[in-house]
Specification:
Radius of gyration of chain A: 15 Å
Low-confidence stretches of chain A: none
Structural class of chain A: mainly alpha
Oligomer: homohexamer
Largest interface: B-C, 30 and 30 residues
Number of helices of chain A: 6
Mean pLDDT of chain A: 95
Chain lengths: 123, 123, 123, 123, 123, 123
């Protein structure tokens, strides 16, 4: 296969996400802004550490089948020190709960994980 | 970010939608054709005006996370005279009901709304 | 059919909802409490009036198939002055968007609406 | 376990469904009525026989996790001559596609199937 | 409110679940049996401990809005030593991801957690 | 419309799917591998023939709105000898169950079916 799997690298995806967030903040009233702020707050370490909370966000995103959300939490769990075995076991829980319909998202998550590992090596 | 956010302009998206509808009508039997006709009929003004019905379609599409449906109703609510504040409040209801999983769709809706406003200005 | 359709009247359902909300507030930390507060705030009249926002909440609840949420918004739209024709047209939008899978919820919404109308008459 | 699994027998469920359909038709405008009529029409034998169409309805209902819809199609597939092995294989497809989240509905479908078989024997 | 919130205690719910599982195993072919076995296997401690995996199952069940699944994992996380603060933070992640549509399930989860705590005290 | 509807031909899509499956198998532990194996096994002919099982998979994929899954089963039902009328009737069941929210996926399924028919003619 000569074509790349994704039409955007992780870096390009992050830049686009920033640009789109600006469009949201141009438009949003107080309620939407508070929702975004509460969203950030929810993943801060508390009784559960940030790593566990990001894994919860990852699996919730996988069973709800949202690629953008899965990629966001894949990046975040890697930053929080989740290793390859922990990552694939979390995906495994999402797969059994959500069924084969999540497989296309699982495939893309696996490819993005590989992309993240390659970035680390090449630094 | 040099790349455009969307790979299709609204005009290109509408042309593709027409082309795909032709594929459906080439294939469809009576039941699918009746469904399409009933779908159109449901949004006609009645006890509720067309503007309200299109807002209902927009929020239903947002919580069910269907980008094509969201864009279709975004165009329609603008045609029915929904203004920027009304639009973002409707999105706000969809966001609180549907949760952070709808955010990627909310981002694209906000960007498409900006695209529609720019088209108006440039006419 | 001698058995009543619902095992709880609307009044009993409201009392149970209050009792359950107390269980949530016994348990909840700051984030969950803020979510509940933001949820209330989102339906306040703004650029869109409360009636329209409650109709948006109703249709979102119907397509997501949540009976408790549908009943809550059915009560609220009635309080906001939505009439029978407006109510059934809003349900009609939810039905065409969400498909036959929403019919069991539509049935219960229709029965609850009749229950609300009877309460008004018997006052 | 002394309590019965279901609070309604299949006969009582069918009577309630009829009573609720009357509530819908008391309320419904033209669009909702047309949807119900189109729904019936879609399952009539055509290029695919009624048995296959009801199996499609059953599996769609299982993956979307709607107990009322599952019970309706369970009754219908039995009427169309689907046998025990065919029934459980269809559920098996729904289970692998939809994941463990469908298991509570699969359990109730299995219990309802047993109830239908017992009714046949006791005739 | 004099009526109990739930029509079944946790013990009665567990007994019913067992009875229903027997109905499934009476009916099931090899594929369904293998699915159930794989489901059990997926939650065994590996790179992630059982506590974390059960929390993942809990949040996945909450955002997919399955009461039976939520109760099952609520019991399991308590058995694995999750405390009240950890439990409510996990629910908080599910609430922000899944939105207000999960609130009815969150309410019942909070009430079941209270029921589990009372059982411990009364032992 | 000069742009092609799909950015990948069916052949390119299949090659990408293979490449992504390799990424999954590089990462996967025993549970994910067993899930993939069970998924394949579930569609083998048994009491129901492979054609019927693939139609069940197609409609389940349509109502759950997964384009990759729909395309996979569209290819498979064609291989199993499903004809144009049978295909569109199966889609019709998915449309009535799943509602207008499935229409964008129905459009793409119709276009992919046409692509498969053209490939046959041009052989």
């Amino acid at each position: 296969m000569d074509k790349p799997i994704f039409d955007k690298s992780i870096g390009e995806w992050q830049a686009e996400r920033e640009a789109l967030n600006e469009k949201v903040f141009d438009l949003a009233g107080l309620e939407i802004k508070r929702f975004f702020s509460l969203d950030t707050q929810t993943y801060r370490a508390g009784a559960l550490d940030a790593k566990t909370k990001e894994l919860l966000g990852l699996v919730a995103s996988l069973v709800l089948r949202c690629d953008d959300c899965i990629l966001y939490h894949t990046i975040r769990v890697k930053e929080e020190g989740v290793n390859r075995d922990e990552f694939q076991e979390a995906l495994g829980v999402g797969l059994i709960v959500g069924g084969s319909i999540v497989i296309p998202h699982l495939r893309r998550a696996a490819a993005r994980w590989a992309e993240l590992e390659e970035k680390e090596v090449s630094r």
